[in-house]
Specification:
mainly alpha; 3-stranded mixed sheet; about 45% helix; about 10% strand
């Protein structure tokens, strides 16, 4: 079995695939969920980091230059927190790719984008929480 895995890695590397940085299934699932909310955005990547965040109290980070969403599992702890943070960082991607890099990352327009994504995620069963972008509680449409 080990021999087959090593051969597969060798073949992938020979074909030019970056086998060391291939996304995990968890990262692919998160990206798929986010694309289910809004597929009309340029390509992006999702990275789940099990180490400590670079900055204190960060649940995630969006790097606009690489279009990469990083989520810090050591801070998230629950599936709902993970999805909330993923949607938050995805809202930055949607904002930056649709409107350019804003002077203030959490401007009023960002809150509207995030709340729209959260409401859509709630209605589609992707997010089970009830927080809004500004910390309030969302009210679902009847």
């Amino acid at each position: 079995m080990k021999k087959i895995i090593l051969i597969a890695i060798f073949v992938l590397a020979f074909m030019g695939c970056d086998v060391v940085n291939m996304p995990t299934q968890e990262e692919l699932d998160l990206k798929s969920a986010l694309l289910y909310l809004n597929s009309d955005v340029p390509n992006f990547s999702v990275k789940v980091d099990y180490g400590e965040p670079k900055w204190e109290d960060y649940l995630g980070f969006y790097e606009s230059s690489t279009k990469e969403i990083t989520l810090y599992m050591s801070e998230l702890r629950t599936e709902d927190n993970l999805m909330f943070a993923a949607i938050h960082e995805f809202a930055h991607h949607v904002d930056v790719t649709n409107n350019g890099i804003p002077a203030e990352p959490h401007h009023p327009g960002f809150g509207k984008i995030m709340d729209g994504l959260l409401m859509d995620a709630k209605e589609k069963g992707i997010y089970k929480g009830d927080r809004t972008a500004n910390g309030g509680v969302m009210e679902l449409k009847a």
